[in-house]
Automatic annotation (TrEMBL):
<dbReference type="InterPro" id="IPR032675">
    <property type="entry name" value="LRR_dom_sf"/>
</dbReference>
<dbReference type="InterPro" id="IPR000742">
    <property type="entry name" value="EGF"/>
</dbReference>
<keyword id="KW-0245">EGF-like domain</keyword>
<keyword id="KW-0812">Transmembrane</keyword>
<dbReference type="InterPro" id="IPR042350">
    <property type="entry name" value="ATRAID"/>
</dbReference>
<keyword id="KW-0472">Membrane</keyword>
<protein>
    <submittedName>
        <fullName>ARAID factor</fullName>
    </submittedName>
</protein>
<feature type="domain" description="EGF-like">
    <location>
        <begin position="78"/>
        <end position="120"/>
    </location>
</feature>
<keyword id="KW-1133">Transmembrane helix</keyword>
<keyword id="KW-1015">Disulfide bond</keyword>
<dbReference type="GO" id="GO:0045669">
    <property type="term" value="P:positive regulation of osteoblast differentiation"/>
</dbReference>
<feature type="disulfide bond">
    <location>
        <begin position="110"/>
        <end position="119"/>
    </location>
</feature>
<feature type="transmembrane region" description="Helical">
    <location>
        <begin position="125"/>
        <end position="146"/>
    </location>
</feature>
């Protein structure tokens, strides 16, 4: 994805849709910062070129090779922060595993059959019970409002 020399003053909001990009060029743009989370979900990104004044997202530890030349900084070979020997492995809660989520970013995914907050609930999500309660509440409220509000409706 070549976004070089596009007069970008900030990361475009549509960039979040390009999470499958492997190579991204942001050089020759008047970018001042790369906000945290700009590359959330970019797990396939292997080569990123940014203006020299900016750091590689996730820091230099998130990349295997960082090269600086006259006008740009080239970040190559995204590292997996979950199995990095530079720091302790990312602390995910019990019943979950660490998964990369972009340069220097991680997410904790629940192991099967756990789900919910901090992966503390075991089994599957009770979809039938949830749908039944939601449907019953919606129908009941609709009937109540129809019964109480229909007298206010004007007849033609």
């Amino acid at each position: 994805l070549d976004l070089s020399n596009c007069s970008l003053h900030s990361v475009p909001p549509g960039l979040a849709e390009a999470t499958t990009a492997i190579i991204l060029d942001l050089t020759e743009n008047p970018l001042t910062t790369l906000p945290n989370g700009s590359f959330l979900g970019f797990i396939h990104l292997q080569s990123l070129a940014v203006p020299r004044t900016l750091e590689c997202p996730g820091g230099t530890d998130a990349w295997q090779d960082v090269t600086v030349d006259r006008s740009s900084r080239l970040c190559q070979g995204q590292r997996n922060p979950c199995n990095s020997s530079l720091e302790l492995a990312w602390p995910c809660p019990e019943n979950s595993v660490c998964a990369p989520d972009g340069p220097g970013l991680v997410q904790c995914l629940c192991d099967n059959p756990f789900h919910g907050y901090r992966c503390l609930r075991e089994g599957t999500f009770p979809m039938l019970l949830f749908g039944g309660i939601l449907g019953t509440a919606t129908v009941s409220l609709s009937l109540l409002l129809w019964g109480t509000q229909r007298r206010k409706a004007k007849t033609p």
